[in-house]
Design goal:
Layout: H1 2-19, H2 32-41, H3 44-55, H4 64-79, E1 83-92, E2 97-98, E3 101-102, E4 106-117, H5 119-129, H6 135-145, E5 158-162, E6 177-185, E7 204-207, H7 211-221, E8 226-229, E9 261-263, H8 266-277, E10 283-293, E11 295-304, E12 315-319, H9 329-351, E13 361-366, H10 371-379, H11 381-386, E14 387-394, E15 406-409, H12 419-440, E16 460-462, H13 470-473, E17 482-487, H14 505-523, H15 530-552, H16 560-581, H17 593-596, E18 616-619, H18 634-641, H19 659-669, E19 671-675, H20 676-687, H21 692-704, E20 708-710
Length: about 700
């Protein structure tokens, strides 16, 4: 413990000693006049107005609704005076690959209704669709169809779901259908035992799992005609509490068993299950006009050009994800509207001379979630090279009713960077100012919106969590450090209740400030605030040290060294990241020279590796991107082609993480400098102890599918 603590303290000490500026500045990193200008200009109300416009669209990938939202964002960006406003298009047909992302075909829906109907309604439908086998049968069918009331929606019918009224009721990737069939309850629907003794062929199945999770069994193996799902939301403390929630549903994009699925509330499902349990026959009539088609992955982008001739080709990117179901207010109209407000604010203040034009270019990106970012960075490799840091916002506006907690999320241990400490410095400043205002009614920078709340922000500085576009930026293919601003939990995520009325304009204003201040600072030259940067890193180090101490209490003593050396390694890299980002900081400053010239070696501990532990893997140039992207799992698809069994690591549950997280970082650490034992130690320090054999098995699997190679 003493070794790595002394190392880290020494690094930070050099930075602080070299700054040459008095401590105790009132605002972090920027001049007080710059913070004041941002505080005065950023508008939570303006952000919320744009959010309301975005949330009116059902924003599925490649759809008309997504295009409408993209055009709205682009129109606003042009109106705000941004440069190089474009809606980039990348073909998507299900066959083209962009790195590890198999392009998903566009998906559109025109109409969908689900009715409960009586037997008479079924006869009307049969008369309209069945081919008559004789003249007599034709006359009977004609007589039926000529009845004035021969409309399945009017004969003892009850509307259960309407796409026009609420698009969320139709699961994404549903295909066109016209079906009248009986309903059968199969419980979860994810295991073969759920279908034991039940003949679901030609019927519609009622399931508690997500539609895509039952598609292969229900439709592919047992011949169901369609699916009705009442899948509940993420398992937070509010799981299953509100029986009126309807969750966003998905079918598998690349399944051979095409079908349709409707999503209903828990209340509706309980009523149906009770009736079926009493032996009652329930017949449903489903009409769906929807389907996949060749289209484009569309990405809106705009810039504020940099001013420095040497640095303007470097970029700081603001990112969100524009796609989602309607309304999708917090997830993620909030992030998209907030970076739009950042763009408006910075451009206006630069035009007015209240902020200097930054040295680096600032870019704003509105893509579909994860897949859009993976496509963009692969299709435009020059853009990936220019982006030096990203600020990603995914859910940043949840008001008190959503139960949201706001996080500034650090990066993975495979990519240590000071940029996360920069964001936390501004978030902590907002925490302090907003609490002072809430407690006393007075604060110079309360960041309160007239139409918003007055509660303190209470942001958390959190360890890395996966689940949005920040995973792509920070993947070992691209190594772009990404600040991740996000709400979690949110009781209404992915449901019909994720509405604009639950969004807090004050929260939007505060998120916009944290993002704008962080991005503007990183886009600057940086030499004007050496001490502020060192203090931000020192504060972040203390937070990480606290986490380390808590985790050491949870692991066996023989893992203490693993955690300690990993901490020291990461802290040293965070310090060096400042010098890499601002190389001119060392110019003419002799006190910084020893720090900049630190030998580029990795601090690692433990016994020397042998056997499989000594193997060294490195990632190949292509394909680029995480193994699990959006709607497609590159690793799973390719290991199945090879006839390989699923690696045990993918289902492993550690102390602080699970399979996908271990796998993500194991690949990121496979950089040609670490052996398998060192990779095992690194992921164990991050997510909890794991066996070397599991890590090696996964790395060998990556080697077999051509993602890594064994370094001789």
């Amino acid at each position: 413990m003493k070794l790595f603590t002394a190392w880290v303290v020494g690094i930070v000490g050099v930075m602080v000693a070299s700054a040459g500026v008095a401590a105790g500045q009132r605002v972090p990193l920027l001049a007080e006049r710059e913070v004041a200008a941002l505080h005065e200009e950023i508008s939570g109300e303006a952000a919320k107005r744009n959010l309301e416009g975005i949330a009116r669209n059902h924003r599925q990938r490649g759809s008309r609704g997504f295009r409408a939202a993209a055009e709205l964002v682009a129109e606003r960006a042009r109106a705000y005076g941004l440069s190089d406003v474009q809606i980039l298009q990348f073909p998507a047909d299900g066959k083209i690959f962009y790195g590890t992302q198999r392009s998903r075909p566009a998906w559109d829906a025109e109409f969908a209704e689900l009715w409960e109907v009586g037997k008479d309604a079924a006869s009307c439908y049969d008369a309209a669709t069945k081919k008559p086998q004789s003249n007599e049968e034709m006359r009977r069918q004609l007589a039926t169809l000529l009845r004035e009331d021969c409309d399945p929606r009017l004969l003892n019918g009850k509307l259960l779901a309407s796409y026009e009224a609420m698009p969320i009721v139709l699961a994404e990737d549903s295909e066109s259908a016209e079906v009248t069939a009986g309903l059968m309850d199969v419980g979860s629907g994810t295991a073969e035992s759920d279908y034991a003794g039940k003949d679901v062929k030609g019927k519609i199945v009622l399931v508690s799992a997500q539609a895509g999770a039952v598609q292969e069994l229900a439709v592919g193996k047992f011949g169901a005609a369609g699916i009705v799902s009442y899948a509940q939301n993420q398992r937070t403390a509010w799981y299953g509490e509100d029986e009126n929630l309807i969750r966003w549903g998905h079918l598998e994009t690349f399944s051979a068993n095409k079908t349709f699925a409707f999503m209903v509330s828990l209340k509706t499902a309980r009523g149906l299950r009770e009736r079926l349990g009493r032996g009652e026959e329930i017949r449903l009539h489903a009409t769906v006009k929807a389907g996949q088609h060749a289209g484009n992955i569309e990405v809106v982008t705009a810039t504020i050009p940099g001013a420095d001739a040497k640095l303007k080709d470097e970029e700081i990117a603001f990112s969100c994800h524009l796609d989602h179901q309607r309304p999708g207010a917090n997830d993620n109209a909030s992030g998209c509207a907030t970076i739009l407000e950042v763009a408006r604010t910075l451009q206006k203040l630069i035009n007015e001379g209240k902020l200097a034009r930054p040295a680096r270019t600032i870019r704003f990106i509105w893509p579909p979630e994860i897949e859009g970012t993976t496509v963009l960075l692969n299709a435009r490799p020059e853009l990936a090279r220019r982006i030096k840091a990203a600020i990603h916002m995914d859910m940043v506006g949840g008001g008190p009713v959503t139960k949201a907690v706001f996080h500034v999320t650090r990066g993975p241990m495979s990519l240590p960077s000071f940029v996360h400490d920069v964001a936390w410095a501004f978030a902590e400043f907002v925490n302090e100012e907003s609490y002072q205002y809430a407690a006393t009614g007075k604060a110079e920078f309360p960041f309160v919106a007239a139409e918003g709340g007055k509660e303190p922000l209470r942001a958390e500085y959190s360890a890395y969590t996966m689940g949005s576009d920040h995973d792509v930026y920070q993947d070992g293919s691209f190594k772009i450090p990404a600040i991740y601003l996000n709400d979690w939990p949110d009781r209404y995520i992915h449901t019909n209740f994720d509405t604009a009325e639950n969004i807090d304009a004050t929260k939007l204003r505060r998120a916009a400030f944290i993002g704008a201040a962080s991005g503007y600072f990183l886009a600057g030259a940086g030499a004007e605030n050496r001490l502020g940067t060192a203090e931000a890193v020192q504060t972040g180090r203390l937070a990480r040290r606290s986490l380390l101490e808590r985790r050491m209490a949870q692991v066996p003593r023989d893992e203490y060294g693993v955690l300690g050396f990993a901490f020291a390694d990461a802290e040293r890299e965070i310090g060096l990241s400042v010098m890499r980002f601002f190389p001119h900081l060392a110019a003419g400053n002799e006190k910084l020279a020893p720090f900049v010239a630190v030998e580029q070696k990795v601090i690692r501990g433990g016994a020397a590796a042998s056997g499989d532990g000594a193997l060294v893997f490195r990632r190949v140039e292509q394909p680029r991107g995480p193994m699990a992207v959006f709607g497609y799992d590159y690793f799973t698809d390719h290991w199945r082609e090879k006839g390989m069994a699923a690696p045990k690591l993918l289902s492993y549950e550690g102390l602080w993480g699970a399979g996908e997280e271990y796998a993500y970082e194991a690949l990121n650490f496979a950089d040609g400098t670490r052996n398998a034992r060192e990779i095992r130690d690194a992921v164990s320090a991050e997510y909890g102890p794991v066996g070397l054999e599991m890590v090696v098995e996964y790395l060998r699997g990556l080697e077999r599918i051509g993602v890594v190679e064994l370094k001789k």
